Amino acid sequence: RSAYRKTMQFLNFKDGQFIDFLGFKRLAAIISGILILAGVASIVAHNGLKYGIDFRGGTNVQIQFSTPPNLDQLRNFFAENGMKNVVLQTFGDLADHEILLGLPINSPLGTGENLTSELRKILEPQHPKLEIRRIETIGPKVGDELKISAVKAILIALGLVLLYITIRFQWRQGVSAIVALVHDVLVVVGMFSIFDKEFSLTVVAALLTVVGYSLNDTIVVFDRIRENQGKYRKKSFEETINLSITETLSRTLITSGTTLFVVLSLFLLGGEIIHDFAFALLVGVLIGTYSSIYVASPLAVFLTKLVPPGGTVLKSS
Question: Would the pLDDT of 112 be above 80?
Fold first, then answer.
């Protein structure tokens, strides 16, 4: 409450005044539509997402060098040997001089001892003291099973969210929150396709984190709406929602700002191994904050007007 009062004083607002967030709901709907359609168009144009080895199957090889490896040079080595679709990224501490090599399931290098010997033939002329520390192979069947498990995890999370919010508030808010969460997931997945980033199990973990973060924002707003409906009975439903969003604005800005600072640090300084994870969180935190205000709240207004609680007719602004 003290943070709210300071925010209102800074904005030169009196008690009960608010920012008209819902006045921009049509513009927000257009922005959301463009983001989702752009993502879907990109996925169609790329014939699906760029799946990581977790989903498509293949082999991960952890290699340690005696000197810092040049990834561009290594990519050229593999391209000269007919392998242009390998994935190379630094691994662990930079001082360890390790990389993670991702090979497709049909790699000409084969598997097991044949893979080890072929890799040494390619790399040892330039890096005679390399050490192959780990080889991990995932078959295509396992990759398909992981895809199904990832989808199930997201659907179960959304189902539990719907159940919780329906019990805690109303089914209208529950449906609004779910639509907002689906919106967030679609935007993040679409961004991965637009920027041609690899979609892996790590990214699925980031998506579930985004779902939880966005849900937390939405519940805070919905809880304040419920409080203010009893406090300001003469205000219209839209005014109550605008007031509730305004009252929680300081909390939203502080929470989102500090989270973005940490996620941006991970994105810029965390290294290639968590780059995609940090990118998903970065987009997710931004879009999750936006959707709590401009997706969940307007939809709650629409559903409440469409099916008023107890058959009552709600006053419109």
Answer: no
Higher model confidence: residue 257 or residue 233? 257
Find residue 98's DSSP bridge partners.
Answer: 64, 91
End-to-end CA distance of the chain: 26
**Neighbour count for residue 151 (Cβ, 10 Å):** 11
CA-to-CA dists, residue 215 to 89, 222, 299, 306, angstroms: 33, 10, 15, 23
* Phi and psi based region of residue 58 (left: phi greater than 0; alpha: psi -120 to 50; beta: remaining): left
- In terms of DSSP bridges, do strands 58-64 and 98-104 run parallel, antiparallel, or are they unpaired? antiparallel
Q: Is the pTM of this model over 0.90?
A: no
pLDDT at position 193, please?
93
Helices 140-168 and 201-231, axial angle in degrees (round to 10): 10
| Whether the Cβ atoms of residue 176 and residue 249 lie closer than 8 Å to each other | no
Q: How does pLDDT run across 297-312, given as a tens digit for each residue?
A: 999 999 888 888 764 4
Are the CB atoms for 158 and 189 separated by under 8 Å? no
In contact, 292 and 218? CB cutoff 8 Å:
yes
What letter represents residue 171's amino acid?
W
Spatial separation of the C-alpha atoms in residues 30 and 143, rounded to whole Å: 36
